[in-house]
């Protein structure tokens, strides 16, 4: 199967074929570094979703019943093909999303790793035997749901495709993927690679477009489980729509993640991790280190270090592999710049950044930005900015940094920097977050469960835990005795 170049017109990918959208409308995607149009992409509709779901339903029984060893080998071939195409995929992602080429490459390598990791699980999805006595054999089996809808955001488009599609497929589900409207290209290409590897055409479908196909998928009678990654308000809409059809949802939502720097921390090391944690991918990461909560005894040293780090960044188009690329789209740049205004109006100190770098107003660039003297109840400490904007919050001996850390609606990740093992372990216990890092940031890998407490989500992605989103448990009871009339629960 030949694939299209980034600049073509891109149709939907349903049943292994490119199809124009039902109403013939296309969206324009833009290079975030220049604002220039790069591609036209089908604006899928509810009618297109109906067609894709019907195809996925039809493909579902055969894929579910494929020998698990073969299913695993097929998914492993996807991993190999992704690895063979790392450079092309990274260039595509870099063009569409805006991120530096080396970060795009790392995302694609990690996408391959998801396929390889879950491939190995295909023949190990074991049930249990339940000891209910000699009169009955009782066991559980794990079965796929059927059709999995995957709704993706724009910050790690290809990587998050793999994060959801790999476990869904391995568990025996067919999928309909709805990428974000500004970053659809890697999903289309990855779906083609799935087909090339031998995944049946109808088992992986991509309906591009905006909110309409997303909403149509979440309320669809033919969809059996929904995996949504995106913002809290859209996640709430997804959950409400899924209630109508009693469809289970996995929600991977936003964060406002605290990094606590204790007085005994190695401050230089803490600066390095927070720098990576907030400025990678221009801060467009759900698990970014958004709030540094720093003890007053090391505050000055920390601020000096992080401001110097922020000021050292070279910005440029992702294709030139700079330290930081542009934000993904114009509306998002505006939103991030609005938050800079909010921070200043609230009385925080703008220690560095906060604007569009000189001579770079064609693309959607925002300087690495550090606010200091932030109070935890300010909007810039409570709301997800999703850009390269760090809020540094000082705390004194009379304050509990963990209370400050927990005092937000989110609970995705949290980090602590300290040399004291007891302090670290007590903090990990008390922090309200799905992932806690000690003396590092981005500690999660493809193998580790990832997901939010509180408003940051429901369910877990990554690791073996993710398979629970794609498998339901059936219990089987076999009577070994003639007759019998036990009441339920006996
Ligand atoms: P978004 O909520 O605006 O959109 C996400 C997806 O939902 C897009 O594909 C969009 O087209 C679709 N959509 C829009 N309206 C819909 C509707 N009514 N029903 C169903 N789908 C609909 O999010 P975004 O701006 O693309 O992404 C940024 C957000 O994603 C941030 O909040 C970030 O923290 C979060 N995120 C979370 C994780 C995680 O693993 N927890 C990972 C990446 C991003």
How many strand segments? 22
How many structural domains can be distinguished in the coordinates? 2
Poorly predicted residue ranges: none
Distance between the termini: 58 Å
Shape: globular
Q: What proportion of the residues is helical, as a percent range?
A: 25-40%
**What is the CATH topology assignment of the largest domain?**
Aldehyde Dehydrogenase, Chain A, domain 1
Strand order of the largest sheet: 14-15-16-13-12-18-19
- Rounded to an integer in angstroms, the radius of gyration calculated over CA atoms is 24 Å
Describe this structure as you would to a colleague.
The protein is α/β, with parallel strands linked by helices and 490 residues long. It has two domains: 9-253 and 456-474, Aldehyde Dehydrogenase, Chain A, domain 1 (3-Layer(aba) Sandwich), CATH 3.40.605.10; 258-438, Aldehyde Dehydrogenase, Chain A, domain 2 (3-Layer(aba) Sandwich), CATH 3.40.309. The chain is built from 14 helices and 22 strands. The chain has helices spanning 46-65, 68-84, 86-97, 101-119, 157-170, 185-197, 211-218, 232-244, 267-279, 296-311, 330-346, 379-382, 401-406, 421-430, and strands at 9-10, 12-14, 17-19, 26-30, 37-42, 136-144, 147-151, 174-178, 204-206, 225-229, 249-252, 258-261, 291-295, 349-352, 369-372, 389-395, 410-411, 413-417, 435-438, 453-454, 457-458, 471-479. The strands form six sheets. Strands 14-15-16-13-12-18-19 form a seven-stranded mixed β-sheet, sandwiched between helices. Helix 2 packs across helix 6 and helix 3 packs across helix 4 (101-119). The chain starts with 8 loop residues before the first strand and ends in an 11-residue tail after the last strand. The model has no long low-confidence stretch (mean pLDDT 96). The structure holds nicotinamide-adenine-dinucleotide (NAD). The site of nicotinamide-adenine-dinucleotide has 29 residues, from helix 7 and helix 8.
């Amino acid at each position: 199967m030949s694939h299209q170049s980034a600049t073509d017109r891109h149709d939907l990918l349903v049943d292994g074929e490119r199809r124009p959208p039902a109403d013939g409308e296309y969206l324009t995607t833009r290079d975030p570094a220049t604002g220039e149009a790069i591609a036209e992409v089908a604006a899928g509709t509810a009618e297109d979703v109906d067609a894709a779901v019907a195809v996925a339903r039809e493909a579902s029984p055969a894929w579910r019943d494929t020998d698990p060893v073969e299913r695993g080998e097929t998914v492993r071939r996807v991993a190999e093909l992704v690895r063979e195409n790392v450079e092309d995929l990274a260039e595509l992602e870099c063009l569409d999303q805006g991120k530096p080429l080396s970060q795009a490459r790392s995302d694609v390598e990690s996408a391959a790793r998801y396929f390889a990791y879950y491939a190995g699980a295909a023949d190990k999805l074991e049930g249990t035997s339940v000891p209910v006595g000699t009169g009955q054999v009782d066991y559980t089996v794990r079965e796929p749901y059927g059709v999995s809808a995957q709704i993706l955001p724009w910050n790690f488009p290809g990587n998050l495709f793999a994060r959801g599609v790999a476990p869904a497929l391995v568990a025996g589900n067919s999928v309909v993927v709805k990428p974000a409207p500004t970053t659809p290209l890697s999903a289309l290409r990855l779906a083609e690679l799935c087909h090339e590897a031998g995944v049946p055409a109808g088992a992986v479908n991509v309906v591009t477009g905006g909110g309409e196909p997303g909403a149509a998928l979440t309320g669809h009678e033919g969809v059996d489980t929904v995996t949504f990654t995106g913002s809290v308000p859209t996640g709430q809409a997804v959950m409400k729509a899924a209630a109508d059809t009693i469809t289970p949802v996995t929600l991977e939502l936003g964060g406002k993640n605290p990094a606590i720097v204790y007085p005994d921390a190695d401050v230089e090391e803490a600066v390095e991790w927070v720098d990576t944690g907030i400025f990678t991918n221009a801060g467009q990461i759900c698990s970014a280190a958004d709030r540094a909560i720093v003890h007053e005894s090391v505050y000055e040293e920390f601020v000096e270090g992080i401001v110097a780090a922020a000021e050292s960044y070279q910005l440029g188009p992702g294709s030139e592999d700079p330290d930081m690329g542009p934000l993904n789209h114009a509306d998002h740049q505006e939103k991030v710049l609005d938050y800079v205004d909010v921070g200043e109006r609230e009385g925080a100190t703008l220690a560095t950044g906060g604007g569009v770098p000189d001579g770079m107003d064609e693309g959607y660039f925002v300087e690495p930005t550090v606010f200091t003297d932030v109070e935890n109840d300010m909007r810039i400490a409570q709301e997800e900015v999703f850009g390269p904007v760090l809020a540094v919050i000082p705390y004194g001996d009379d304050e509990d940094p963990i209370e400050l850390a927990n005092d937000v609606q989110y609970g995705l990740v949290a980090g602590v920097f300290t040399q004291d093992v007891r302090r670290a372990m007590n903090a990990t216990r008390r922090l309200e977050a799905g992932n806690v890092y000690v003396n590092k940031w981005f500690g999660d890998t493809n193998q580790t469960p990832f997901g939010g407490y509180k408003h940051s989500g429901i369910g877990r992605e990554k690791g073996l835990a993710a398979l629970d989103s794609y498998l339901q448990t059936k219990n089987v009871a076999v009577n070994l005795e003639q007759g019998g009339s036990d009441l339920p629960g006996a």
